[in-house]
Amino acid sequence: MTTNTEKIFSFIDAYAESTEVLYLEATIDICQKWLSGESQPAVSETVTKEDIRRGIQLAVLKGMKQNVQPNHQMTPDSIGMLIGHIAGKLAIGEQGITLLDPAAGTGNLLYTVMNTIENDVTATAIEIDDLLVRLSAVTAELLEHPVTFYVQDALRPLFVDPVDITISDLPVGFYPDDENALNYELMPAEGHAYAHHLFIEQSMKHTKPGGHGVFIIPANLFESDQSPTLHPYLKKQTNIRAIIQLPDSLFKNVAHAKSILILQKPLPEAKVTHDVLLAKVPNMTDKHAMALFLQKIDIWATE
Q1: pLDDT in tens, 197-230
Q2: Strands 239-245, 258-264: parallel, antiparallel or unpaired by DSSP?
Q3: Which of 15, 12, 96 is nearest to 51 (CA)?
């Protein structure tokens, strides 16, 4: 039996392959036709937001393979679902949750989190690539998610109100604009700043006191040559709540392994310190081990 996700992918793919424009441009075109009612996939009445997100995601992944660019990468679903679970637990019992993704790309990670939190959640997405923003915007409309988009360098000044939770699959590498980087505490005394360091600082600037930042980071973040600058910043400006190591099996090269860093912006009156959760995600195909791990996360979030 063909699933709704497969039907949506086939609907987009058939159109994209029948045109002469770039696959990703064609994906935007057919999604806009879907929105207008001009053409629609033959999905069942029980189609969910996750069905829609995954169907579009499959098409976007195919399009990215046909036109590879360094900044066109998507957070793996397994990691996105885990980030969604964590964010959902941090948001539990709260109303009117606001999110920020300062490196939103196609919005896939952001929408995975929004689908998990489900009710009464709004978001802001920052992305410098116009094509990715257009993909993200049409997806947000199909998912009926209220998202505000800014097409800009996220490390420039942002006119964004502080949010409850910032999430980001951090762009890794050097930030070339040294003049702008001088506005950040994490600009090193010599050489270029790491973009992923600056994204952490920028994200926490735009997170409410008591709010959280949930970041996908290089596994060696605290062992790099600029970590002596990062350590004092995190100690002064944030509370480290958790460092969660992702399985090496998720990455083709162990050198590119990632972890999840969870920070909290301190409340001015709060003096209590908490233990840092240090954990390693088990093999994600082991359902029993993953259930125990998620239970551990739930207990940690509750405490």
Answers
A1: 999 999 999 999 999 999 999 999 999 999 999 9
A2: antiparallel
A3: 12
Query: Between 108-117 and 77-91, two packed helices, what is the crossing angle to 10 degrees?
Result: 40
| Per-residue pLDDT tens over the stretch 221-263 | 999 999 999 999 999 999 999 999 999 888 888 778 999 999 9
Burial class (CB in 10 A: 0-12, 13-18, 19+), 273: exposed
Read off the tokens for 3.
Answer: 């699933």
Helix axes 287-302, 77-91, angle to 10 degrees: 30
Q: How far apart are CA 93 and CA 223, in angstroms?
A: 37
Pairing of strands 207-218, 277-280: unpaired
Outline where DSSP puts E strands in the chain: 97-101, 121-127, 147-151, 163-169, 174-175, 193-194, 207-218, 239-245, 258-264, 277-280
The residue with tokens 């005394």 is 189
Q: Give the whole-angstrom CA distance, residue 169 versus residue 154.
A: 13
As a whole number of angstroms, the longest Cα–Cα distance in the chain is 61
Rg (CA), the chain: 20
Say whether 81 sits in a helix, a strand or coil: helix
Residue whose entry in the numeric block shows the structure tokens 């039907």: 7
User: In the numeric block, which tokens belong to residue 53?
Assistant: 């997100």
